[in-house]
Amino acid sequence: MQLLADAGVPMIAVYWPPAWLALIPVITIEAYWARRVLAVTWANAFGSTALANLVSTLVGIPLAWFVWAVLELRFAGSAMGLNNPAESIYAMTVQAAWLIPYEDQLWWLIPIAAIVLTVVFFFASVGIEWAIMRSIFHRAKGSAVRRWAWTGNLLSYAVILLAVLIFLYVPRASLDRVSKVPVNFVINAAWKTALCLIRRASG
Fold it and tell me: Rounded to two decimals, what is the model's pTM?
């Protein structure tokens, strides 16, 4: 796991790589649901859900994290401590995108932050995938596409969260090596953007 001991834990490094590995089961689940709800062929179901999930996973998740991380670093990046329930809740929700390095507390902060991020990524994916599927199946009922997006993502994000939590406790050196370049790109972009905003505000 990529961890910045001094700067904290950018949770995109924890969350994003396992989400890639979950793509095949996620696409399968959502294709099955598209087949049932939208009454399309298996080929259309797999093709459309594969496209929707590639966009939401490779673009939607890092973009949602980027926006959250930049806002956190700009406005909520200071360590408040974990001295009471309010501070603990603040640390694992408001600061979930880029965890403060409370070294001896990360064992429980990281899983809870992953759950919090799942909620945000879920809503982002619902919007992205609904728009893609609506454009592909423009003759389908809008209510059917919405039903597919909400229920399909509810099922698929249960799989993604399970993959993320599993990879917190199993060796993942190979996965981190493969994901190093894109993950570091997103992390560095968020860090530099936040620093730029801080400098402008102070200048």
Answer: 0.92
